[in-house]
Design a protein that fits this description.
Number of domains: 1
Oligomer: single chain
Order of helices and strands: HHH
Strand content: under 5%
Length: about 110
């Protein structure tokens, strides 16, 4: 490429950057984003609460079995424990992926 070509390309890039900076953000887009944020936030909060309830139920069954409660069987305790463990692992994986996505976005050049 010659110097003339590079200069014209740089001028075009600067022109496009200035045009992009002057464009207003559409109000409908920001409203939709806030609606999705609230939906995602409530979805994530509900999932965390479900995992918490599952772990509490598992702990309660374990304690009942350890006390010698005849109405609680070992199979029920093991099943509740496995469900709580799977839920917690899934929640941890979601958290890890969210953190990774956030880091990727933050490392993007502007």
């Amino acid at each position: 490429m010659s110097n003339m070509d590079v200069s014209s390309v740089l001028a075009q890039i600067r022109n496009l950057q200035s045009q992009a900076a002057l464009r207003p953000i559409a109000p409908a887009a920001t409203e939709a984003a806030s609606t999705h944020k609230a939906g995602f936030e409530s979805l994530l909060k509900n999932a965390v609460n479900e995992v918490n309830q599952s772990q509490q139920a598992s702990s309660a069954l374990q304690e009942s079995f350890a006390r010698g409660d005849r109405s609680v069987e070992l199979a029920d305790v093991m099943l509740a424990s496995a469900k709580a463990q799977v839920g917690f692992r899934a929640m941890t994986e979601v958290r890890n992926r969210l953190v990774s996505a956030y880091q990727d976005i933050m490392n993007m050049p502007i």
